[in-house]
Amino acid sequence: MKTEVIILNYNGVKLMEHYLGSVVKSVEASENIQVTVADNGSDDGSKEWLKEHYPTVRLIEMEKNWGFAEGYNKAIKKSDAEYVVLLNSDVETPKGWLEPMTDYMDKHKECAACQPKVLADKRRTHFEYAGAAGGFIDRYGYPFCRGRVMDNVEEDHGQYDNDVEVFWCTGACLMIRRNVYVEIGGLDSRFFAHQEEIDLCWRLKARGWSVMCIGKSIVYHLGGGSLGYESPRKTYLNFRNNRLMLYKNLDKKEYGWIAFARLWLDLAAILQMILSGKTGNAKATIKALRDFNRIKPEFETSRNENIKLRTKKNIDERLNFLLIWQVYMHKKKKYEDLIKK
């Protein structure tokens, strides 16, 4: 099989009712594409609905909710496709969305993974927050995208239609070579959810692979998922996992001074949350920092392996500035403003 599109589901029958049809229809003319739903132990009738309405869709049933990362790891182990696509259950895929990514991967053997342009399903003139037109990070680990810097989301008027190498691809729609995914260890299940795709792409790039955004491919993402953007639980996972990602992928010398800077930056973020009345998010951030320090020793082996196996220390798409300084002090709200010399 050429490509398997895997949708991870947990109690998302309503989302499947709305979005799955577009995925099936968009690939129905091809004999080399399989659509699969990997179910994370749903109890909302998802599996029964799928069997009744889409019997040609492959169903992988798991006994419990393994989270985003381990759910995909388990599902991809059951695939024999050349390429797998990690696709959120709240993504609409128009006809022709998959071919540009497949064609690029076929022609560029150095490319391990790619993503499409991701537009907002409810506001299709604009990019979607999670992924937009490809992701980058700054020197201190803050992620941003072409088309989305902090909370500023751009209108799409063709400015990012080119194919471009990026630092990370969004987990909302990520195509990757299955053998490379398995070889590199897949998503880190200890993250559970959030920023695990950035960690995965960091490992890919550090080991010499390229990661791309393919501008001719477009999908529409609802976004938000089970956790809203202001959710304390999401805040917790983002702060904890971002620290884990930095620890896993930086050598001791660089990590030392970046961790020191991030401590003060995170304390400033906590203060800002308190002053804004977001006490739940502030408490979640404090818990995230405490938990990171508690579990950090569990990641030392992974860190040593990443440093040992990397062939490239300095990655061009990890940009040498502090994002929040550029946004709040220099008023740079767009990707094109950030990269101007």
Task: Describe it.
The protein is an alpha/beta fold and 341 residues long. The chain is built from 12 helices and 15 strands. The longest helix is centred in the last third of the chain and has 24 residues.
Radius of gyration computed on alpha carbons: 19 Å
Specify the oligomeric state. single chain
Cα-to-Cα separation, first versus last residue:
45 Å
Mean pLDDT: 95
In N-to-C order, the SSE pattern is: EHEHEHEEHEEEEEEEEHHEHHHHEHH
Give a quick account of the main beta sheet: strands, pairing sense, barrel closure: 10 strands, mixed
Net shape:
globular
Q: What's the total count of β strands?
A: 15
What is the count of helical runs? 12
* Share of residues in strands: 15-25%
Protein traits:
15 strands, alpha/beta, ten-stranded mixed β-sheet, 12 helices, 341 residues, three-stranded mixed β-sheet
Secondary-structure topology with pairs:
Layout: E1 3-9, H1 13-27, E2 33-40, H2 46-53, E3 58-62, H3 67-77, E4 83-87, E5 91-92, H4 99-107, E6 111-120, E7 123-127, E8 135-138, E9 143-145, E10 148-149, E11 152-153, E12 164-165, E13 173-177, H5 178-184, H6 196-206, E14 210-221, H7 232-249, H8 252-275, H9 279-295, H10 300-309, E15 318-319, H11 323-328, H12 335-338
Parallel strand pairs: 1-2, 1-4, 2-3, 6-14, 8-15
Antiparallel strand pairs: 4-13, 5-14, 6-7, 6-13, 8-9, 10-11, 12-14
Helix pairs in contact: 6-7, 7-8, 7-9, 8-9
